[in-house]
């Protein structure tokens, strides 16, 4: 029987290899399909699952995948799930084992709306084989849940070992406390300057931006001061944190025209927190 | 041509922002500070529901894509208006034979993005300690960590 640990690893491996297949383009679709097929055939848990579903089922996959006509190919999904599983498995075997067939060649024969190779191939693989992927994925998840429930019933010996290990690790991190130096403060002041610049391009209400600017200025003053006040810093820090939680999402989106970037408010908050911690 | 645009998305009250799975179309939320933590960079995201993975650019929500398109459109409008405005001036000099008329294109309003608080449950990954908010029915299915892909 497969162990809980092995099953979790299998789940991750299967999802990775399925995603690779679903994300295929013209260059790698055939390789990805061969790897996927090999994986499900050679992993005992999955091949057993498929055998259980398909053994004794007599069904021609060309009734589900209408690929014989000279016109467009099409898919007619049978109501019985077992027939559908078998049809998908056999169609995949047909593509992988045939010398004349490629994934791209098949994809082109199904109606498509995009003119990009990757889109045509990905929508074909998703339409034709995603139900098989979902079937296997769900079966693995269900088995994990079953094993978890069995484990809950055994006493928590393992947990004790876990927590001892945890505190040992914590012990080592505590010893490495940071030491203040002038350099750090200069860097922080520089970041605060950048924050004020970044403010101008943020699309947030003006009064909120004004409050944030006040907070940043308070922090700058305190850092430059020979006797920084912890209470004033904490108050300003709370304001900056509130802003970051609400407006600080930096989005990096690639578009046809360019990319989107922003200022890292979280790095700034961390740096201020480190400074506040060092004040006695 | 490459132009940089910058905009922000307001997270929910706990700083979570909505994403959309390209495979199963389900929405989930990630903490903005963890998503953009430069100390723990990542290329791919896993869907917490179906567990499939793709590069992170494929997980933006409809609203974000719409907003990016609007900003890009407005940029284009600005460029065109500018170019045609200049052309009109040079065509319409006092002794010019050809006259040109041109009405500037209108820009589209850019919506502010704000995530509402919803009824999702927050999970912490035991492996990387990062968080995800999902719609969850206890015992019905597994939840996968969007960053490292393991089941939570
Ligand atoms: Zn999904
Ligand atoms: Zn994780």
| Topology pattern of chain B, helix = H, strand = E | EEEEHEEHEEE
Tell me the span between the first and last alpha carbons of chain B: 43 Å
Please give the share of residues in helix of chain A: 55-70%
Mean model confidence by pLDDT of chain A: 80
Spatial extent as radius of gyration of chain A = 29 Å
Helices of chain A, by number, come to 11
What is the number of helices of chain B?
2
Mean model confidence by pLDDT of chain B? 84
- Can you list the strand order of the major beta sheet of chain A? 1-2
**Ligand catalogue:** zinc ion
Note the overall shape of chain A: elongated
Question: Quick one: how many beta strands of chain B?
Answer: 9
Structural class of chain B: alpha+beta
Largest sheet of chain A: 2 strands, antiparallel
- Helix percentage of chain B: 10-25%
Determine the strand fraction of chain A and express it as a percent band. Answer: under 5%
How would you characterize the largest beta sheet of chain B? 4 strands, antiparallel
Secondary-structure element pattern of chain A, one letter each: HHHEEHHHHHHHEEH
Structural description of this entry:
The complex is a heterodimer of chains A (280) and B (152). Helices cover 69% and strands 3% of the residues of chain A. With 280 residues, chain A is mainly alpha-helical. The longest helix of chain A has 36 residues, at 117-152. Chain B is α+β, with helices and mostly antiparallel strands. Chain B has a domain at 9-63 and 112-134. Chain B has helices spanning 32-35, 62-91; strands at 3-5, 8-10, 16-20, 27-31, 44-46, 53-55, 113-114, 121-124, 131-134. In chain B, the strands form three sheets. Chain B has a four-stranded antiparallel β-sheet with strand order 3-4-9-8. A two-stranded parallel sheet of chain B has the order 2-7. The mean pLDDT of chain B is 84. Strand 4 (258-260) of chain A pairs parallel with strand 1 (3-5) of chain B. Residues 125, 127-128, 130, 145, 147-148 of chain B line the site of one zinc ion.
